[in-house]
Amino acid sequence: MHTNINARDSLAGIILLILAAFGLYLNSSNPVGTAGRMGPGYMPMVVFICLAVLGAGVLAVGLRGEPQRLARIAWRELGLIVVALVLFGALLQDFGMAASTVTLVVISGLADREQTLRGIAVLAAFLLFLCWLIFVWGLKINVSFLPPALSGL
Fold first, then answer.
1. What is the total count of domains within the chain?
2. What are 67-95's pLDDT values in tens digits?
3. What span, in angstroms and rounded, lies between the C-alpha atoms of 109 and 36?
4. Are 32 and 44 in contact (CB under 8 A)?
5. Which one has a higher pLDDT value, 29 or 73?
6. Is pLDDT larger for residue 59 or for residue 153?
7. Which of 8, 29, 78, 137 is the most exposed place for a label (fewest CB within 10 A)?
8. pTM score > 0.70 for this model?
9. Distance between CA atoms of 18 and 14, rounded to whole angstroms?
């Protein structure tokens, strides 16, 4: 019996669904509120639901797609991305969103062997502007964009 299961997409979909379920579980103790009066758990809930829908879609494509075996795990790339995310979270409060975002982009950019330093710099500059535009100017979220020592300048 021949099956049309794309192992890579199927596994990716399952991982996304597990992450979404874990995130929803961790977020379950936060008050959600309503769309008009959002609580601290509202946006994480929306993001995790979107992640679950994406995971279900990827899994569905994997179950009906072209057969494809799992490739070897790219440990270096995976490690760089995890380190980048951890450092972003660790640096955000003490060093501000700008430094955290640049750190995230530079380290995760190194995970792509075809990425150039110019491409990383352009992406970092674009994301800095986008983060400032959305979070600081648009949503007026109370997060320091610059390191607290420089915020008063």
1. 2
2. 888 888 889 999 999 999 999 999 988 99
3. 37
4. no
5. 29
6. 59
7. 29
8. no
9. 6
